[in-house]
Write a structure and sequence with these properties.
The chain is α+β, with helices and mostly antiparallel strands. The protein contains four helices and ten strands; from the N terminus they run E-H-E-E-H-E-E-H-E-E-E-E-E-H. Strands 1, 2, 3, 4, 5, 6, 7, 8, 9 and 10 form a ten-stranded antiparallel β-sheet that branches. Strand 7 and strand 8 form a beta hairpin. Helix 2 crosses helix 3. It is globular.
Length: 228
């Protein structure tokens, strides 16, 4: 399964439309209606934060076929700019829809496929303060936006109709969601996990070309091992 560039967020016959999006880029369970759900709470920070990775260091920590021999590993790219009709949902929408993140110190992207499930992996390097605040903003969005929201990625309109918090563990803190979305009358589901490890965040966005996507537990575990 390839990871082609595309603007549509939910292709009719292929899942990978979101896995890669227009162009490369470097940037400097329970229903979430109640605003609750399993997630790992932030751990206390050490007095001296680790030095953020630059892009070369991030690239050296990307997964390869040696890390996941039963998956196909391919190149992926930064997504398009995303906006939301609800400002509180914007960072959540970026994670769910694979959009461009700004304010980072570096970023790299790739994707892995097993069976019908394709997972985009995005590693972003931040200052210590921004790494924690971004995950906090996503968590707040999960609490505020469980009833659904509208988003625009590039020029495409997407409606997130349901958001369910999922179990999340690993790293210094993490959140995970299962979501349902609709575009041009077509419905699809997505499994997403966001983990912070020091000053690095790893985003895993899993979609399926047929049926529901499998939560990317094995992919998350393999990637976090390389970030330690």
């Amino acid at each position: 399964m390839r990871f082609p560039s595309a603007r549509r967020v939910v292709p009719a016959a292929a899942v990978i439309m979101l896995i890669t999006s227009c162009g490369t880029g470097t940037g400097t369970g329970k229903d979430a209606h109640a605003g609750t759900g399993p997630s790992s709470a932030p751990k206390s920070h050490s007095p001296q934060a680790p030095k953020p990775f630059d892009e070369d260091e991030l690239a050296a920590r990307q997964l390869t076929s040696q890390d996941l021999p039963d998956h196909k590993v391919e190149e992926a790219f930064q997504g398009a700019v995303i906006s939301s009709d609800k400002p509180a949902c914007r960072d959540l929408a970026i994670v769910l829809l694979g959009g461009a993140m700004t304010g980072t110190l570096g970023q790299v992207h790739n994707g892995v496929t097993k069976g019908t499930t394709a997972t985009k992996i995005s590693l972003h390097s931040w200052t210590a303060m921004k790494a924690g605040s971004f995950l906090a903003d996503v968590r707040a969005g999960g609490q505020a936006c469980g009833g659904g929201f509208n988003a625009v990625i590039g020029t495409d309109k997407v409606k997130v109709t349901k958001l369910v918090a999922a179990p999340a563990t690993g790293g210094d803190e993490s959140v995970a969601y299962s979501a349902e979305q609709e575009q041009d009358g077509e419905k699809s589901s997505v499994e997403v996990v966001l983990v912070r490890q020091g000053t690095t965040t790893a985003t895993f966005t899993a979609r399926s070309a047929s049926g529901a996507a499998e939560p990317p537990a094995a992919v998350v575990a393999a990637q976090l091992k390389k970030l330690h």
